[in-house]
Amino acid sequence: MAKLSGALPKGERNGIASLEAEFVKDPTRTHVFIVVADTAKVIQNIDTGDHEPTLRILRIENVLPKDASTAERLVRRSLERRTGTKGLNIDLDDEIAQIFADASIDIRTGEQHITFVKREDDTEDDRENEA
Q1: How many CA atoms lie within 13 A of 61 on its CB side?
Q2: Rounded to an integer, what distance in angstroms lies between the CA atom of residue 87 and that of residue 95?
Q3: Which of 52, 54, 56, 17 shows the shortest CA–CA distance to 37?
Q4: 42 near 50, Cβ under 8 Å?
Q5: What is the full per-residue pLDDT of the chain (131 aa) written as tens digits?
Q6: Are strands 3-4 and 51-62 parallel, antiparallel or unpaired?
Q7: 8-22, pLDDT tens digit by residue?
Q8: Where are the domains of the chain?
């Protein structure tokens, strides 16, 4: 299974850095980002022959409020392609709709605020894999 490198890009390629105060102010808020990544390294398990890639984030940017509907369409299209299904199952469809429907815009900053609704069947591993 692919893993993420713990390092974020430096300088202007790190769109998270400018949001640090927001992360502290509202740590339960969910954010939507666009990420560009490549493979930093691949580890091979000699016994099984399995390969485990570690991805490196090259650029990360916050999705702007005016682009939320476009981002939602991209997420849905990517999920449909990955899963091979034209329509998403109702739970997954509801989850995606909830993420984008609960978006609100901070009129002071223009930033989008999204509330993530925790489902009772969520596990810590589920939330880590979604990140």
Answers
A1: 11
A2: 14
A3: 56
A4: no
A5: 999 998 999 999 999 999 999 899 988 888 889 999 999 999 999 999 999 999 999 999 999 878 888 888 888 888 888 888 776 677 777 777 777 765 554 534 555 555 444 445 545 544 444 44
A6: parallel
A7: 999 999 999 999 998
A8: 1-62, 63-120
Kind and range of the H or E run holding 103? strand 103-105
Return the exposure string of 30-67: e unless at least 16 CB atoms fall within 10 Å of the residue's CB, then b: ebbeeeeeeeeeeeeeeeeeeeeeeebbeebebbebee
Provide the pairing of β-strand 51-62 with 103-105: unpaired
- In angstroms, the CA 107 to CA 61 distance is 20
What totals of helices (H) and strands (E) does the chain contain, helices first?
4, 5
Backbone dihedral angles phi then psi of residue 58, each to the nearest 5 degrees: -90, -35
